[in-house]
Amino acid sequence: MHASRRLAAFAVGALLMLAFGAAQAQDRFIVMASTTSTEQSGLFPHLLPEFKKATGIDVRVVALGTGQALDTARRGDADVVFVHDQAAEEKFVAEGFGIKRMPVMYNDFIVVGPKSDPAGAGGNDIAAALKKLAASPADFISRGDKSGTHAAELRFWKDAGIDMPAGKAVGYKSCGCGMGPALNMAASTNGYALADRGTWLNFKNRGDLSILVQGDRRLFNQYGVMVVNPAKHAHVKLALAQSFVDWVVSPAGQAAIAAYRIGGEQLFFPNAKP
Predict the structure, then answer these.
(1) Which among 17, 20, 44 has a CA at the least distance from the CA of 30?
(2) Is 117 helix (H, G, I), strand (E, B) or coil?
(3) Cβ–Cβ under 8 Å, residues 211 and 108
(4) Is the pLDDT of residue 8 over 80?
């Protein structure tokens, strides 16, 4: 072959190899459906770069309420799910949509409200607090979005013997929104809200709000992670998604979670059992 032709053939081959490598690199990402609290608390901007550094895999987050995140995965629009409603997660796996649920970390729920606490809800008993709020005209902002926080809120009302939202109090307002917007509504109306501590610690627009109810063991908030089952959706990136699950429950992933702090305060506490 003429030297110039050999050189041209080599150049074409090199370009094809580069294009193939670029295409492979572009494919090294997963879509993760997750709860708004992991995003709005600032955890993912801290955690996911550590995962990429360790594996080279990008994670594209779709931040929704837990119920919507699980529905997104049911439709096959995610490779992995990272949420916080254990009953719903176990149902997701039992239906065959998730391969295995793995506990990852926990924090807790809190009730925030105006420092003056006009409803007298403050303390460490969530049931007693909600009974006082139900009897008060004060605003209570519910996420109302089928999220893990919303599911927990409805469970707490039920434990208090109150049917919400069917028997809602005068000030009960359902925003159908994420945790950040719900806290903004509570701040603007000087109302009350149930929140996860992580989002609250990263929330800047607090106005006159402060933590009023905390410390009840029922306020425990567990997070789990699951790979979406490729038997339901063949396009799921099983190997890459499993890489994320393996990393986040590994000592390195758990240490990265524990290292995330705001103002010196730890937001999430790793408790994986690999």
Answers:
(1) 44
(2) coil
(3) no
(4) no
Distance between CA atoms of 189 and 170, rounded to whole angstroms? 14
Burial degree of 11 (CB within 10 A; 0-12, 13-18, 19+): exposed
- On the 0-12 / 13-18 / 19+ scale of CB atoms within 10 A, 228 is buried
**Alpha-carbon dihedral 43, 92, 98, 110, rounded to 10 degrees:** 10
Look up tokens 């096959």; give the residue: 76
- Report cis status (omega within 30 of 0) of the bond before 165: yes
Element (H, E) at 53: helix 43-55
Distance CA 231, CA 272 (A): 26
What percentage of the chain's residues is helix, strand, coil (to nearest 5)?
Answer: 45, 25, 30
Span 250-272, pLDDT tens digits? 999 999 999 999 999 999 999 99
Question: Can you give the pTM of this predicted structure?
Answer: 0.85
Of 78, 83, 36, 72, which is closest to residue 60 (Cα–Cα)? 78
User: What pLDDT, in 10s, does the model give residues 207-231?
Assistant: 999 999 999 999 999 999 999 999 9
